[in-house]
Every structure is written in structure tokens, then in C-alpha cells.
Recover the amino acids of this structure.
């Protein structure tokens, strides 16, 4: 998988969002749809759209339609989000099932998982390649301090997993 150009662009997009995150305490979800000639930027109408299934479906449909209209080659999805992780999850399917049943908030309180705030950029391409760029951050009162970064490769089964098919 050679996404070097897209990954560099994705990190640059995240770096450009840091001042807004630090100033406002959060971001409005944003999608950049690119082809060789133009870029369409789609902003979620409401920062809390992620908590509204109908709103998410409508936004996803708008992004899909824009990708098709522009005959886009790349989609960048930028947001701030909570990321819950289970160390070595594949080796612990019973724990994954249990966390799914009780929810991530309760599992965090029980110390079963680590839940952190992140600035994220999901990258999907027409060729079927993709990755997730994750930049962790910590809050100290109203101050947001950026922390470690990582790239998470793997299949995207989410709303945009089959975007280009």
C-alpha cells in the first residue's frame, strides 16, 4: 500500500485543525473530497451529528453523492472523537464481546479499556486503499495538549467502507 502522498496531506490537514481544536475545544466534522482538478469541502451542519443516526445517514449520503459527482479519487474525513482501545483485542474476543455489551464508558470506568480523545483523519481512495491517522490529546482544564500520533491501517467497515464501489 503506497499512500505516502495522501498520508502526508492527512497529517497536514490535522495540523491545520489544531488551533481550532485548542481554541474551541472541539471540531465540526469535515470531509474533503478530491479529484485531480478540484476539492469539495463538506462541513457537518452540527458538531453533534455523530450522536444523531438520521443526521449521520444524511451526511453520509451527501458525501457519497459528492464523491460520485466529482469522480473523486480521495476522501479525507476529519473529526475529533473518543477512541477506545483494548490491548491485543484479537486475542481477547470474550472481552470485546463484554465491552460491547456494557458499553465503552462503563468498561473505561472498570479499567478494561483505555479511552482517549483524538483528532482523526480517515483516508479512503478509489483504489481501495485507506488508513486512519490518529493524534491523541489530553485536556488540562480548558487547555488542550497534543500528544502521540499513530497510523492505523486496516479494512474500513464503517459508513464509507464501500464508498468507491
Amino acid at each position: 500500500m503506497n499512500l505516502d502522498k495522501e498520508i502526508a496531506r492527512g497529517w497536514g490537514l490535522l495540523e491545520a485543525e489544531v488551533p481550532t481544536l485548542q481554541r474551541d475545544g472541539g471540531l465540526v466534522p469535515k470531509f474533503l473530497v478530491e479529484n485531480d482538478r478540484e476539492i469539495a469541502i463538506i462541513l457537518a451542519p452540527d458538531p453533534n451529528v455523530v450522536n444523531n443516526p438520521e443526521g449521520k445517514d444524511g451526511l453520509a449520503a451527501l458525501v457519497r453523492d459528492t464523491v460520485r459527482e466529482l469522480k473523486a479519487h480521495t476522501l479525507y474525513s476529519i473529526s475529533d472523537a473518543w477512541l477506545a482501545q483494548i490491548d491485543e483485542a484479537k486475542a481477547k474476543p470474550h472481552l470485546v464481546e463484554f465491552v460491547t455489551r456494557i458499553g465503552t464508558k462503563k468498561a473505561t470506568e472498570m479499567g478494561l479499556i483505555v479511552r482517549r480523545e483524538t483528532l482523526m483523519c480517515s483516508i479512503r481512495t478509489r483504489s481501495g486503499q485507506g488508513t486512519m491517522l490518529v493524534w491523541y490529546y489530553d485536556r488540562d482544564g480548558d487547555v488542550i495538549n497534543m500528544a502521540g500520533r499513530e497510523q492505523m491501517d486496516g479494512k474500513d467497515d464503517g459508513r464509507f467502507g464501500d464508498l468507491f464501489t
Observations:
- The beta strands are 30-34, 39-43, 74-85, 114-125, 130-140, 143-153.
- The chain has four helices and six strands.
